[in-house]
Design brief:
Blueprint: E1 5-12, E2 15-21, H1 29-40, E3 60-65, E4 74-81, E5 88-89, H2 95-107, E6 116-124, E7 129-137, E8 159-164, E9 183-185, E10 188-194, E11 198-203, H3 215-219, H4 222-238, E12 251-256, E13 264-269, H5 280-290, E14 308-313, E15 316-325, E16 328-346
Parallel strand pairs: 2-3, 4-6, 11-12, 13-14
Antiparallel strand pairs: 1-2, 1-16, 3-4, 4-5, 6-7, 7-8, 8-16, 9-10, 10-11, 12-13, 14-15, 15-16
This protein binds (1E)-4-oxobut-1-ene-1,2,4-tricarboxylic acid.
(1E)-4-oxobut-1-ene-1,2,4-tricarboxylic acid (NQM) binds at residues 14-15, 56-57, 94-96, 197, 251, 270, 279-282.
Length: 348
């Protein structure tokens, strides 16, 4: 590996990832993960000896490969590299990094570009679902510039539209894996839901919070974090995830009435650090909970009439489009942007 490994460093939505071709990495998962830990610099809170950014949102890896099924254009495996633990998890998907997958696959020549726009069917290996991605390719080349703006990312960029037709229960096998809209865990009403991302939803007020606290304030509340982790450990088996002590899912999301004209306000623990915004698939799960009567989110939500759920978070809003009738959701979509930051070789 002394000549280095080809690597694209990409922003996808409000996260960043090192993107590799599967053919450039060891095929054995253990050897691959050991290599990726060295590349990212984990375990170390600063990831000083690697390219990771010392934050879960910039300690991500995506691995691309030719499609392993006939209805897809390419395969995408997402890996969360823990910052301060020697651990890599494929247990969760990542909708933010998904935005960078189409552009990266086009950059690498894994799929051909059309003139104008390129539609790609991306097989998300973590869940087995297909995402439809619309990439701007004027003149047959990826364009990263444009007028689209997403909260949490400065400036404007080319839009990447993502649509999912079948992500209900993507990880847990059912939208409400416990079979109930609400469960009592540690004396609190919790909605255990998976509409793309396994999430435990709790009302902020039930924890004595307003739901408008800053991520820094929430991270400083040791008792709160311990309480949420105890609930998360109970939720794991109920969500068919088993023992989740070492897993990055389920995420924990505190909800409150919207305060900025959106559908609902959120603060997300992913699962131990507090997100500066919210993961997009987590936001899809929250939006789905808003339309389920009896859920911890339903009574707090201001349901939009046009299916555009603006999920409020600490740095703005994430727009989720749900095509639904009541609690019956036919498809979910969102707009993200992506950017190629670096194309080169990384050394382990
Ligand atoms: O929920 C962070 C992110 C994510 C995941 C996390 C994500 C999603 O913001 O789809 O995008 O929840 O760990 O990248």
């Amino acid at each position: 590996m002394s000549e280095g490994i080809p690597c694209l460093w990409m922003r996808g939505g409000s996260s960043k990832a090192a993107v590799f071709l599967a053919a450039d990495l060891p095929q054995d998962a253990e050897a691959r993960d050991a290599l990726l830990l060295r590349i990212m610099g984990s375990p170390d809170p600063r990831q000083i000896d690697g390219i990771g950014g010392g934050d879960p949102l910039s300690s991500k890896v995506a691995i691309l490969a030719p499609p392993s099924r006939p209805d897809a254009d390419l395969d995408y495996l997402f890996l969360q590299v823990f910052v301060d633990q020697p651990r890599i998890s494929a247990a969760q998907p990542c909708g933010n990094i998904l935005a960078a997958i189409g552009p990266a696959a086009l950059e690498r020549g894994l799929v051909p570009a059309q003139r104008g726009e390129t539609m790609l069917r991306i097989h998300m290996r973590n869940t087995g679902e297909i995402a439809l991605a619309q990439i701007q390719t004027p003149g047959g080349r990826v364009s990263y510039t444009g007028d689209a703006r997403i909260d949490g990312v400065p400036g404007t960029h080319a839009p990447v539209r993502l649509i999912f037709e079948n992500i209900a229960g993507a990880v847990c096998g059912a939208v409400l894996p416990s079979g109930r809209a609400v469960d009592m865990l540690a004396g609190l009403e919790c909605t255990l839901i998976d509409h793309g991302m396994p999430v435990v939803i709790l009302r902020a007020t039930d924890l004595g919070l307003s739901g408008q606290e800053s991520p820094q304030m929430l991270e400083a509340m040791g008792d709160l974090r311990a309480r949420l982790e105890a609930i998360r450990l109970q939720a794991g088996p109920l969500m068919a995830l088993g023992d989740v002590a070492a897993s990055s899912v389920p995420k924990m999301v505190l909800v409150a009435p919207p305060s900025a004209g959106g559908a609902i306000a959120t603060r997300s623990f992913i699962p131990h650090r507090v997100h500066s915004g919210i993961g997009v698939l987590a936001a899809v799960s929250v939006a789905a909970a808003c339309v389920i009567p009896g859920s911890a989110a339903h009574a707090l939500a201001a349901l939009p009439s046009d299916g555009c759920f603006r999920v409020e978070h600490p740095t703005g809003q994430t727009e989720i489009l749900l095509d639904h009738t009541g609690a019956d959701i036919r498809s979910a979509g969102f707009l993200r942007t992506a950017r190629k930051l670096m194309d080169g070789h990384v050394f382990a």
